[in-house]
Structure formats: C-alpha cells, structure tokens
Design goal:
Elements: H1 4-17, H2 22-29, H3 33-40, H4 48-58, E1 106-108, E2 126-128, E3 141-143, E4 146-148, E5 161-163, E6 166-168, E7 181-183, E8 186-188, E9 201-203, E10 206-208, E11 221-223, E12 226-228, E13 237-238, E14 241-243, E15 246-252, E16 255-257, E17 260-262, E18 265-272, E19 275-277, E20 280-282, E21 289-292, E22 294-296, H5 298-306, E23 314-316
Parallel strand pairs: 1-2, 2-4, 3-5, 4-6, 5-7, 6-8, 7-9, 8-10, 9-11, 10-12, 11-14, 12-15, 13-16, 14-17, 15-18, 16-19, 17-20, 18-21, 19-22, 22-23
Helix pairs in contact: 2-3
C-alpha cells in the first residue's frame, strides 16, 4: 500500500524546490488548492494520471514518488514556463515531448497566435476573444467548449475533432479544416471565408448566419445537420454529399459537380447562375428550390424532373458543354 504521508512530503519538497505555491500548482492541475494541501498533509493522494502531470510540473521522474527512490541521488529541476518544455533533462533520460492538456480552462482575451505543436486537448473550456492567428492546431480535440469571438485566421485545424461545442462570432478565415470532424456542434455567425473543408465531416451540426465565401467543400460529408441563412458565394462543391440535411435560405452560385442530396429538406433555396453536373437527388422534395439562369447535364436534369422541380430556370448542357 502506498504511504500517503511519504508521498505528501515528496510533493511538498519538490514543490518548494521549484518555487511555486500550492495555489499555483493547483492552477496548473486544474484542481483546488485545498486538494494540494490534503496531498501534502497525507490525507489523500493524486490519481495515476495526475501523478504523470505532477512529475512534468515538478521536474521529477515518476520514480521520485516511490518509497525506494533515493532523494539524495537526484535533485528536482526548476520548472520552465508553462508554454515551453524544459531543456534541462536528468542525466541518462531520453528527451520526452511535453504534452499539454489545456482543458477545463477559462480563457479570456488570451493571445495564442502562432502556437505550434499543440496536438492535444482543449476541452470543456470557455474561450472568449482569444487569438489563435496562424497557429498549428491540427489534431486538436475541442469537446464541450464555448468559443466566442475568437480569431483563428490562417490556422491549421486539420484532422481535428470539434464535438458538442458552441462556436459563435469566430473568425476562421483562410483556415485549413481538412478532414476535421464537426459533431453535435452549434456554429453561429462565424466567418469561414476561403477556408478549406476538404474531406471534412459535419454530423448533427448546424451552421447559421455564417460566411463561407470562397470555401472549398471538396469531398465533404454533411449528415443529420443543417446550413441556414449562410453566404455560399463562389464555394467549391465537388464530391460533396448531403444526407438528412436541412438547407434553408441558401444560394448556390457556382459549379456543383459529382454531389448528392439524399433525404434532404429544402426551404428557400436558390441555384443562381450555377452549373449542375452529375448531381444526385434522392427522396428529396425539390418544390422549394428555385433555379435562375442555371445549366445542368442530362442526368441531373432527369433527377430534377423526377423530383417535380421547376425546370423553367434551367437549360440543358450538351455533351460538349453547350446548351440545348
């Protein structure tokens, strides 16, 4: 059985050598200072995952907390700032990449611009008016977050997971969101102009009053969610699939090619000056779609006709690209 008193003494000793208070240690661990006090008095002890983080913060090896560890043989090293791993490593130890978990934080007016190599968690946090301009946030997990009025312009957020989050009034201009997954999230009044959504999946997520001007949705998948009252000017629609999606107050004004709309619900949707090529419609009512000065290939035209769409605003493309 672990000796809680011994472990408490070791935590206190290492903390004092690194010259941080109980409150500062608690803040880095996202716990209360009272909990740290209980550890040091031997009334309780950290769980195994917290031991790993403690070792990183206090600059010690995990073996430091064992009874067999000889404290005279190894001394603790001062802790570097939170945003930079220590360059000083114990003799004989291989360099380890420091992993940050910035979850459960309240981040207001923080500037994380040009942040690199995070690749970790940022979950259950409240972020307001923060800057992440030009940052590398690829592989990020954003779960159950409230993100309000933050600027991610020019950042790499590819291969990330944004789950159960509320995104409001944020800037994602020129961002790479390739193969990112949005699931169960609310996206409201965000600017995604010129963003790259190649291979991105939207699942049970709703985007309303957003600006997607010039965005690239090549190979994107949208299912069980919706787009409403959003700007879609000059968007790239190629191999994009919509399944069980609610689409309202949207104008498609560019080429829509090799795309599919299955079990979708449309309301006040307009295709204007658009070219539709190999576009598939299934189990979808097309009566609420308006076509203005559009062109369509033969297959797409037949799908629209079978769906009782109003074809008066569509001219038929010939195989050579002309109109019939």
């Amino acid at each position: 059985m672990l000796n809680t008193k011994m472990i408490g003494n070791k935590i206190a000793e290492a903390r004092k050598k690194t010259n941080i208070s109980q409150a500062q240690l608690a803040q880095r661990l996202f716990i209360s200072s009272q909990a740290v006090g209980k550890w040091e008095r031997g009334e309780s002890m950290p769980d195994i995952t917290t031991f790993n983080r403690l070792a990183e913060i206090l600059g010690v090896d995990l073996n430091y907390f064992s009874e067999s560890f000889q404290s005279a043989a190894t001394e603790t090293t001062p802790v570097e700032p939170l945003v930079k791993p220590s360059d000083e490593l114990p003799s004989g130890k291989q360099e380890k990449k420091l992993k940050w978990d910035m979850s459960r934080g309240n981040w207001v007016d923080a500037d994380f611009s040009e942040l690199k190599n995070l690749h970790e968690k940022f979950s259950s946090s409240n972020m307001q008016r923060c800057k992440f301009i030009g940052s590398d946030l690829s592989g990020l997990l954003l779960k159950s977050n409230n993100v309000d009025s933050c600027d991610f312009s020019g950042s790499d957020i590819s291969s990330s997971h944004i789950q159960g989050s509320n995104l409001v009034n944020n800037l994602f201009k020129d961002c790479s969101l390739k193969e990112t997954e949005f699931s169960g999230s609310n996206i409201d009044r965000c600017d995604f102009s010129s963003a790259n959504f190649t291979g991105t999946e939207f699942s049970k997520s709703y985007a309303k009053d957003c600006d997607f001007t010039g965005a690239d949705f090549t190979g994107a998948v949208v299912k069980s969610g919706g787009f409403e009252k959003s700007t879609m000017a000059d968007v790239v629609w190629n191999r994009t699939s919509f399944n069980a999606t609610y689409i309202a107050d949207i104008v498609f004004d560019s080429t829509v090619e090799d795309c599919s709309f299955e079990n979708c619900s449309f309301k006040k949707v307009t295709f204007q000056n658009a070219t539709l090529i190999n576009v598939f419609f299934k189990n979808t009512s097309l009566k609420r779609i308006r076509f203005i000065d559009c062109q369509a290939d033969r297959m797409t035209y037949e799908f629209l006709k079978q769906g009782n769409a109003d074809l008066t605003g569509i001219s038929l493309l010939t195989p050579k690209g002309g109109n019939e």
